[in-house]
Amino acid sequence: MGEQITQAQDLLRSLPGVDRLLQMPVTELLAEQYGRSLTLAALRYSLDNRRQAILAGNGREPDADSLVQEARTWLENLLAPTLRPIINATGVIVHTNLGRAPLSRSALTAVQSAGGGYATLEFDLDSGKRGSRAVHAENLLIRLTGAEAATAVNNNAAAVLLMLTALCSGREVIISRGQLVEIGGGFRIPDVMAQSGARMVEVGTTNRTHLHDYERAVTENTAAILVVHHSNYKIIGFTTEPPLADLADLACRHNILLLYDQGSGALLDTAPYGLEPEPTVLDGLQAGCDVVCFSGDKLLGGSQAGILCGRGGLIGQIKRHPLARAVRADKMALAALSATLAQYLTDRALVDIPVWRMIARPLPEIEAEANQWAARLQEEGVAARVIDGRSTVGGGSLPGTSLPTRLVAVEQADVESLAAALRGHSLPVIGRIQDDLFLVDPRTVLPEQAEALLTALVRYA
Ligand SMILES: *Cc1c(COP(=O)(O)O)cnc(C)c1O
């Protein structure tokens, strides 16, 4: 016992001091790469670690090289990016956990030029005076939707909050009990309503709400009817909800507003691709909604943003509210959004916007790619074959509907380990597991990532 204590004390005494470690040439290189103070912190961490180990009886002869190596590992781990690119082979097109919509090339170029230098964010080149950041996406949005006015904020959650706060605070807002939804990430309509200062008046039942339910709830204190699109859930069976046009008529008769949280930002019809029809932004405006709000990075396929379109006076009120400043969109989001909107205006959406290219991709093309991948994997000795499957839109849109696809199925004794190894790859691959098969959907794999995907599968399968 006594001998052990002396041994530990000897080991502790022989630990080099920070000063000595700092003078080593290898440490100087570290300090050049990571900065002096962070390197110092890393060395202290490494020495501390060794001290604890010695006191716990696990000490070994401390050598300076291994102490510095430990410091280097600590520095590398600390600074390793946590937001890393991955390959989405799940077949979920707008995958909320994987960053929703991938940006188009022209959106990326716009982000780079707006973010990498100075830009006319709030500057008017004609007058040489201060301009408004509001102008950037607005004209394109107005042109695209036919709305009188439009504005973009940080995300759609902010758009809903801002709309209710600016237009309904202190007054009543009527909403169907079938629409008191949680969107995900803790965004719950009743909570947002409370936060906005509006008083929520629930009408109808979970499955059925009629026009007369709304009509009976109107008082002299009513500011608006809010309609929230069933983005991420479906009520089937004995259900009814009045059409937007009937609600618009009712709102008009009672001189109250009809506000519509459309959610997905679909500007194109989803039906031609075999999906259920998703109400579009235009449907909402044409039905007579006063303000329609939606996300920029779901089916719109652009950057994170919340977009509000509608009547000029109301959008003006929304833009002037103090909260608007707190939820404004940044220059890179505005740049990407404008570039994406321009693609719709020039009929390039189906070709150039990744989300729509994936939705519209013909099945024979997916099948050809799946066959090619499977053949290549088989050549490399991987047990792979092509099977039928379904891709989904995701992002809390179009629940319960999917697109036919062809999957590459990799057979593996321990499919969970394969999935884990692929997640641990330098460019991680995320797929699906089903019936002991690892499934890869070509629909959501970006063309430039296909080669890396196959290389990873060959390596780990
Ligand atoms: C997604 C969604 C939101 C939240 O939008 P974010 O852009 O994620 O903030 C709000 N309402 C509906 C109906 C949605 O689908």
A few lines on this structure:
The protein has 461 residues and is of the alpha/beta class.
Main attributes?
five-stranded mixed beta sheet; Aspartate Aminotransferase, domain 1; Aspartate Aminotransferase, domain 2; seven-stranded mixed beta sheet; globular; alpha/beta; 3 domains; binds pyridoxal-5'-phosphate
- How much of the sequence is in beta strands? 15-25%
Name the average pLDDT. Answer: 94
Large-scale geometry: globular
Bound small molecules, deduplicated: pyridoxal-5'-phosphate
Share of helical residues? 40-55%
Rg from alpha-carbon coordinates = 28 Å
Side-by-side strand order of the widest sheet: 5-11-10-9-8-6-7
Distance between the termini: 51 Å
What's the CATH topology name of the largest domain? Answer: Aspartate Aminotransferase, domain 2
The major pleated sheet works out as: 7 strands, mixed
Structural class, by secondary structure, is alpha/beta
Task: Give me the CATH architecture of the largest domain, please.
Answer: 3-Layer(aba) Sandwich
Number of discrete helical segments: 20
CATH class of the largest domain: Alpha Beta
Low-confidence stretches: none
Number of strands: 16
CATH superfamily of the largest domain: Type I PLP-dependent aspartate aminotransferase-like (Major domain)
Number of domains as seen in the coordinates: 3
